[in-house]
Amino acid sequence: NVQYLADYRPYPFVLSATRMRFALAATDTRVRTELSLAPRDPEWSEDLVLDGGKAVRLLSLTIDGEAPDPAHVTRDGETLTVAAAALPRHPFLLETEVGIDPSANTAFEGLYISNGMFCTQCEAEGFRHITFYPDRPDVMATFHVTIDSDLPVLLSNGNPVGQSQGRAEWHDPWPKPSYLFALVAGDLVAVSDSFATRSGRQVALNVWVRPGDQDRAGFAMESLIKSMKWDEDVYGREYDLDVFNIVAVDDFNMGAMENKGLNIFNSKLVLASPETATDGDYERIEAVIAHEYFHNWTGNRITCRDWFQLCLKEGLTVFRDQQFTSDMRSAAVKRIEDVQALRARQFREDQGPLAHPPRPDRYEEINNFYTATVYEKGAEVIGMLKRLVGDDGYRRALDLYFDRHDGDAATIEDWLKVFEDATGRDLAQFKRWYTDAGTPRLTMTEDWRPGEAGGTLTLTFSQQTPPTPGQPEKPSRVVPVAVGLIGPNGDEVTPTQVLELTEASQTFAFEGLGARPVVSALRGFSAPVMLSRDLDDATRAFLLAHDTDPFARWESGRDLALSALTAAAQGQATGGNYVQAIGRLIADDAADPAFRALCLNLPGEEEIATRLSTGGITPDPDAIHAARESLARQIAETHLDLLARIYQDMTVAGPYRPDAADTARRSLRNAVLALLTRIDGGERAEVLFGVAGNMTERMAALTALLRRGRGQAELAALHDQFADNRLVMDKWFAVQPMAAPPAQAAQIARDLATRRDFDWKNPNRFRALLGGLSANHAGFHAADGSGYDFTADWLLRMDPVNPQIAARMSTAFETWTRYDAGRRAKALAALERIASTKGLSRNTREMVSRMIAAG
Ligand code: ARG
Ligand code: ZN
């Protein structure tokens, strides 16, 4: 059942207005739907095909008030078809009534119940589990929704147009596809505020939470107000309704959802207090609130023609939320964090069996394509476009995009065309970034010629992209490479220039140089590629000390660390250069503590494995773990006094604030703590855990202790204090397998899974435990297969209950082909055990068969 981009065809009917009436009941909700339809072309004669899941029971159907001949209505498991013969050639009204059972909806797709509250998730194809409908993004209609229920708060999209005892009516004047529909009903309370748009619209803002959670919703509200202001200031985008509602729910498959005027969030991305949330949680909340809000223009006002175009809205909205966070916090730190995440998730995806382009051209289950490639690489592609056309060109292109496509269901072609029209640039070659999978490998070599009128430095770049599933040939791409030159005394002699690589191999010359400079390459990570260059450790250390581009500077440290680690993981010695260089860097009190922390945190084991396998070496998880442990210990021993001093200096005084400055200090202090805990027997971490009033420091202390095989008392204390707080308990479940010594990780996960409070049907709890284990690289990949078996057992248990979650967590296996024969055999056996299970969901079947096919 494969869908192809090439098969796109407009829907043969025009739907102008949708009216719905919900009579809510836990096991038998009735939904009446009126669709104002017209044939797209009265000359055609087409059957009317509506989507509708198996569990939707059709109770009645009329066309202009009359029931059609039952012979003209056919139902299969996924659709309802009214034959052309039963349809008028003029506009008509189709009315249906259906019955659905929200209480039985454990997949959390469509209308379901979470903690006594009705809520919905319709993207991508959830609306078809609520009623019969053309459930595709290019069919857009206004919605009028009536909700009948005794619950006190009844919400839907748009503006409220009527409230009475047991009933609420909502009208959304902005035509939208069904995936943006939302309904919430429950016993909720709001934290409220308001926002005046720059053209004078007063918008009522509410963050709805369960009673008792109000004191943890304030930061989400602040973030929303900042987002609304930022989108006006930076993109000229104003909000367009009288209310904006956000609701926090405990059972949610993803992070959050941008339903028009009624964003629904996983409660972990709304609720925060210093005692329960970490600095990282605060930063994510701010970013995701912004992300969903920004979708109002990039996603809702301009939506996608079909799901192949998903990165049109997601890549752009991620790019926008990244810009927002850079403006709110430190741009340098944000860029480094984003690149780390891209490498950890997207590069990993791009190198394995699940590689696909930002705009795929085929899928079986669209929910399997909400990936790092569509989101994060989709954002990187926009960053490259912006660099190529410049800030002004970008602004003109975006203005044209909003102007030309407001109200449209658009495509990547439409998006690229606005850049071509606004800037005059031909983007035919650039488009390959959207259509081709895989991470290009770039090689840079240098040639230096001294001369009388100054020396000439010639850089030669070549590019090559390895094959990915279904795409053996990879033509060259446009690669913007930002480069600067640093003179021998550490000053920048040539500021950043963007070299545009278009050929398989190309040279660029810098003339009139005094002495041979050091090249600072791929500044700001100007393209999502892997750059390799022959650089000795001394030059890397020089760049780590002097590069004026913060990303490139950090990258030099990263390369130093990785070369030490990959050598050690293959049994070769020394990290001396890195240890010395990092000591100088962290001793620099003038440097941003967050930057120092980023440099001090060693690359993760997964990243080391990726680096090795990119170089054609089979990674050994145990050797990698040992190499990283030993380098960390070497750093701690060498710089003990310096680290102890920094630990003191970085103490944060005063009340907890989740802002960039305090977050930076805590991040350095916590990175230092992890090192000191290797030497001090856990003393500092135990003290910190006891006195810290905030979750950031308590989690840092607990993690450091667990990694050293300690921390049992702290775990118990955390449990006692927060047994009733789901979000804290999720951390409690996640940290144990994640920070466990690898040999024990799978058993610890297995034991945790037997606990009564392992509420596995809750997606956050399930992700905490399975994700915690797979974040432990050597633990998940334990040679005895225990990590694979545990994961496979639970994927099989989850699949019939919530296929989206099972399929998503199956990506723990996506790198299986890179390991040794013993591990490969065990991973393949686990995958085959899943694949051979009867009744497997389409979601999990697609994922597992793609992974097996790569073997
Ligand atoms: N559009 C949402 C966001 O990125 C994600 C929703 C995805 N849901 C899903 N079931 N695949 O903000
Ligand atoms: Zn999004």
UniProtKB/TrEMBL annotation:
The UniProt entry, under Gene3D superfamilies, shows: 2.60.40.1840, 3.30.2010.30, Neutral Protease Domain 2, Peptidase M1, alanyl aminopeptidase, C-terminal domain, tricorn interacting facor f3 domain
A Pfam family matched by this chain, by name?
A: Peptidase_M1
**What are the Peptidase M1 alanyl aminopeptidase C-terminal domain coordinates in residue numbering?**
538-852
Give all residue intervals belonging to the Peptidase M1 membrane alanine aminopeptidase domain: 219-433
What are the residue boundaries of the Aminopeptidase N-like N-terminal domain, all occurrences included? 115-180
A single Gene Ontology MF term assigned here is:
alanyl aminopeptidase activity
Tell me which cofactor or cofactors this protein depends on: Zn(2+)
Domain of life (superkingdom): Bacteria
Which EC number(s) are documented for this chain? 3.4.11.2
Family listed:
Belongs to the peptidase M1 family.
The residue ranges of the Peptidase M1 alanyl aminopeptidase Ig-like fold domain are 438-533
State the UniProt keywords alphabetically.
Aminopeptidase, Hydrolase, Metal-binding, Metalloprotease, Protease, Zinc
What the entry lists under PANTHER family is as follows:
PUROMYCIN-SENSITIVE AMINOPEPTIDASE (PTHR46322:SF1)
The UniProt entry, under SUPFAM superfamilies, shows: Leukotriene A4 hydrolase N-terminal domain, Metalloproteases ('zincins'), catalytic domain
> Which reaction equations make up its catalytic activity?
Release of an N-terminal amino acid, Xaa-|-Yaa- from a peptide, amide or arylamide. Xaa is preferably Ala, but may be most amino acids including Pro (slow action). When a terminal hydrophobic residue is followed by a prolyl residue, the two may be released as an intact Xaa-Pro dipeptide
What protein does this entry describe? Aminopeptidase N
One GO biological-process annotation of the entry reads: proteolysis
